[in-house]
Structure formats: structure tokens, C-alpha cells
Design goal:
The protein is α/β, with parallel strands linked by helices. About 30% of the residues lie in helices and about 25% in strands. The protein is built from twelve helices and 15 strands. Strands 3, 4, 5, 6, 7, 14 and 15 form a seven-stranded mixed sheet that branches. Its EC number is 1.6.5.5.
Length: about 325
């Protein structure tokens, strides 16, 4: 038996999650079981508990969508991995990563960069691959362009700042509050806007001489998206990453037409499903950036397994910066 958080009834994380003992997971063909060493809390974990995520695993399930772990058992037909390998990847639901043991598809288990701690390595997967595919594959970010990042002190936002700087862009980070503003500065943002104190539209226009941002990275949606259209450059690209603000925007396509900008969607998981080799190449690029020190996931706090329900609730309430991660050494 192993310990795992279980969701039996959907609701707010602190109410829905229960720490229980469950049978050891067994790998099916093409899968491996890993001993979880670290797992960051992602906003999708909040949505999974609420039943609001696009993936709806059968009840009960363990949240925890990504991890760094040590391979402890191989299923049939697994090649290229061995017991003891340190890997990162996405947990196979319903045996998520908020547990002592979890399951990974062997084809999607990637080598953990040696220069990163377990907690840092665990956060290099979803947020950084989202940033890499969004900025490079979908938006075609070029050196010298201006990148505006919303929720810049959060998990995906902090990754976008670092990846934008590594690509040679001028990065503007939008945050809420002075603590988060300092985090964005420490991450390397060239300009930081506290949305409680300043209007990011005006700041971007002043910075660019009225031209606007070439790429806008928006994991928030709603009003944030609507205001972003007021400072997007000619032939700019607005990346739709998510809707953490709770409102799915309805874009005015006539506005996109008259200003010649693109509204670009990104569902990163489709790349993993349809083009796993490109996802592996993206991980290799990210690993090189991590080895060089150009990117390093921001782990603001490490928590023990027993503290995870409250940690997930804090992420859902927007009270965290960077990544809060379950770490077995915490």
C-alpha cells in the first residue's frame, strides 16, 4: 500500500482531496511506475478537483499532472528505460502525482536534467513546454521583439519570462501586487507592471513608441484579453494559453481584421499526443537551456505530501508565486 491523495467528490481542493492508503499501482503495457520525488501544483490540478478541466478522470482519482520521479517498475513492452532512471513527465490518470507512487507512459518519460533539483525538474515539463511551443512554434517570437506576459509571477508566466529573455525579446511582465512584481524582476523581466497600480496598455505603448507588443502571452483571459487587444502591434500575435481569470473571452474578429493581428490558440497536450517526437525535441532544447542556466523553474515553496490539499487550494485562490511543489525531501 502507498499513500495518495484521492478525490471522491468534486469540489474545492481543500474539501475534495483526502489522503488515503491505496494499492500499489501496476504498470500496463508501455507504462512505468515511478517513486514520486517531486510534483508541482498546477492550475489544472485545481480544475480537476472542481470537475472543470477538459480531462475528467473517473472518481476516485489522485490529482498531480506532472512529476519528477525514479523508475521502480517496468511494464511489458517498455524499451529505453531502466529501474533507477530519474525522469520527468505527465502522470497517467487516475494515478496522479500527488502520491508516493504514480504511473507514466514510457514513451513520454523524459530524462530529468542533472543540474536541476527534483522540484525544479518536475516543473520543467508542462509550463516550460507550453512556453516553448507557444512562443516558438505558434507565435514565432523573434529576437528584438516585445513580449508581454500576463500572470508573470505564476507557473506558466514565470516560464514565459525566462524563455522570452532566452530568445532575445524585451519582456514586459504584468503581475498583481508588489511581492509578485519583485519575483518578475528577479526572473529577468525588463519592465514589470503591477496591474493594481498601473495600466499595462499605457506602459506598453510608451515603451514601444505606440507600436505595441509583438507577442502577448495570456493565461488569464476575460478582461485581460480584451485590454490586450488595445496594445497589440501590427502583425502581432496574442497567444491564448488559458482562462485562469474564470471568463472565456469572445474575441471581436473585426478588431483583429482592422489591426492585422493574429489570435493564436495553444493546446500543448495535443503536441504530446500527435507529435511526441517534437515534444521530445522541445524537452531537449529546454534541458540545454537549463544546463546553461538560461532557465530555472521558480520553486517558491516546497511542501510535504500531507500539506498538498492546502497548497492546491492556495494556487486556486491565486495566493502563490512561482511554483509550490510537493517534494519528498520537504
Amino acid at each position: 500500500m502507498v499513500k495518495a491523495w484521492q478525490v471522491h467528490e468534486l469540489g474545492q481542493p481543500r474539501n475534495a482531496m483526502r489522503l488515503e492508503e491505496v494499492p500499489d499501482p501496476k504498470p500496463e503495457a508501455g507504462q512505468v511506475v515511478v517513486r514520486v520525488k517531486a510534483s508541482p501544483v498546477n492550475f489544472p490540478d485545481v480544475l480537476l478537483c472542481r470537475g472543470e478541466y477538459q480531462v475528467k478522470p473517473p472518481l476516485p482519482f489522485a490529482p498531480g499532472v506532472e512529476l519528477c520521479g525514479e523508475v521502480v517498475e517496468l511494464g511489458p513492452d517498455v524499451e529505453g528505460l531502466a529501474v533507477g532512471d530519474r525522469v520527468v513527465g505527465g502522470a497517467v490518470m487516475p494515478r496522479g502525482a500527488f502520491a508516493e507512487h504514480a504511473v507514466l507512459d514510457a514513451s513520454r518519460a523524459l530524462p530529468a536534467p542533472e543540474t536541476l533539483s527534483d522540484a525544479e525538474a518536475s516543473a520543467l515539463y508542462i509550463g516550460y513546454q507550453t512556453g516553448w511551443f507557444g512562443l516558438h512554434r505558434r507565435a514565432g517570437l523573434r529576437a528584438g521583439e516585445t513580449l508581454l506576459v500576463h500572470a508573470a509571477a505564476g507557473g506558466v508566466g514565470s516560464a514565459a519570462i525566462q524563455l522570452g529573455k532566452a530568445a532575445g525579446a524585451t519582456v514586459v511582465g504584468v503581475v498583481g501586487g508588489p511581492e509578485k512584481a519583485q519575483v518578475a524582476r528577479d526572473l529577468g523581466a525588463d519592465v514589470v507592471v503591477d496591474r493594481h497600480q498601473e495600466d499595462f496598455v499605457q506602459v506598453v505603448k510608451e515603451l514601444t513608441g505606440g507600436r505595441g507588443a509583438d507577442v502577448i502571452y495570456d493565461p488569464v483571459g476575460g478582461e485581460t484579453y480584451q485590454r490586450s487587444t488595445k496594445c497589440i502591434a501590427f502583425e502581432g500575435r496574442i497567444l491564448i494559453i488559458g482562462f485562469a481569470g474564470g471568463t472565456i473571452q469572445t474575441p471581436g474578429l473585426n478588431h483583429a481584421l482592422i489591426k492585422n493581428y493574429s489570435i493564436v490558440g495553444l493546446h500543448w497536450g495535443l503536441y504530446v499526443q500527435r507529435d511526441p517526437e517534437t515534444a521530445r525535441q522541445a524537452h531537449a532544447e529546454l534541458a540545454k537551456l537549463a544546463e546553461s542556466g538560461a532557465v530555472r523553474p521558480l520553486i517558491s515553496r516546497r511542501v510535504a505530501l500531507e500539506e498538498l490539499a492546502e497548497a492546491v487550494q492556495e494556487v486556486g485562490d491565486g495566493k502563490t508565486v512561482g511554483r509550490v511543489a510537493y517534494d519528498v525531501s520537504a
